[in-house]
Design a protein that fits this description.
Length: 286
């Protein structure tokens, strides 16, 4: 195990001061904490490709809607520090919301935002989570400005987020390489997520149907079935007891729906579990 001497920083000025002294490439891994093996894989990758690794742990209020789980989102800083250190992080940056945002946000619930184009956010997760990607792009831009990384690491688990961040980097001229990391799964196929801790025992059993649906669709596509509507119906059949938010197949180039599937297109699912209504997302490249 590659144990470094991890430093916890909770203040922006201290982070900037420390990074000023660093020579070599900085790798940034933005997270909301409750770190698990998915995050671990990003940190390990960052450690293997950079001289210095910053992991941010920040439950970002601007990306949560009013009826979402901001207050109950798991906060586990002690164990996050252990995981980050053993995965090779040099710094965990874990600011409070008051440190991260200025007074105007707390007084008016408004701040300067980085807003991706409507075309990127009017579908999939953006459709039901109004303003979500504005919050994501804003906090990620702030983290980019604070850490000035050479590379930043994002999981394919949040495929639309990854697509939007890549566009943001191009469109705002950030000189940062965005590194896409594969989805880490439980042995039964469930994509690992901090929100899996909300699942009841029954929901945990049901949750595996999401990845089963994805893998079935891939199997059918590999056998030559390429009509999206047929493949989507197959996936939906696995999600009988779920509240399905969306099942869509999109091109990885523009994230627009496709009628006929080509290699590299992505099937995405968002659905709420039968019992506790935990909203899970997953996807697979076809
Ligand atoms: P989060 O803490 O959920 O905001 O996630 C932080 C980063 O970890 C994002 O880039 C996610 O896509 C990535 N991530 C979350 N879960 C996984 C997973 N199971 N496999 C790979 N990356 C993940």
């Amino acid at each position: 195990m590659n144990m470094k001497n991890l430093k916890l920083i909770q203040n922006k000025a201290e982070l900037r001061a420390l990074l000023k002294e660093i020579k070599g490439d900085v790798g940034l891994v933005p997270t909301m904490g409750a770190l698990h093996r998915g995050h671990q894989s990003l940190i390990e990758r960052a450690n293997s490709e950079n001289d210095f690794v910053v992991v941010s742990v920040f439950v970002n209020p601007t990306q949560f809607g009013p009826n979402e789980d901001y207050d109950k989102y798991p906060r586990t800083l002690e164990s996050d520090l252990k995981l980050a250190e053993s995965a090779g992080a040099d710094v965990v940056f874990a600011p409070s919301p008051k440190e991260m945002y200025t007074d105007i946000y707390f007084e008016e619930k408004e701040t300067t935002l980085v807003c991706p184009p409507y075309k990127y956010v009017n579908r999939l997760c953006g459709k039901t989570r109004a303003g979500h990607f504005d919050g994501v792009c804003t906090v990620v831009s702030k983290l980019f400005n604070l850490t000035n990384p050479k590379r930043a690491y994002f999981g394919q688990k949040d495929a639309q987020q990854l697509f939007i961040i890549k566009k943001m980097v191009q469109e705002l001229d950030f000189d940062i390489e965005i590194v896409k990391c594969p989805i880490v799964r439980e042995t039964d196929g469930l994509a690992i997520s901090s929100r899996n801790t909300y699942l009841s025992e029954n929901d945990r059993k049901s949750a595996v149907n999401i990845s089963k649906a994805l893998f079935k669709v891939k199997e059918l596509k590999d056998k030559g079935i390429v009509e999206s509507s047929t493949l989507i119906d197959t996936a939906i059949a696995y999600l009988k007891d779920f509240e399905v938010d969306y099942v869509e197949i999109v091109s990885k180039n523009d994230f627009c729906s496709v009628a006929t599937v080509k290699n590299g297109d992505i099937i995405l699912i968002a659905a709420k579990t039968p019992e506790c209504k935990v909203r899970l997302i997953d996807n697979l490249e076809l």
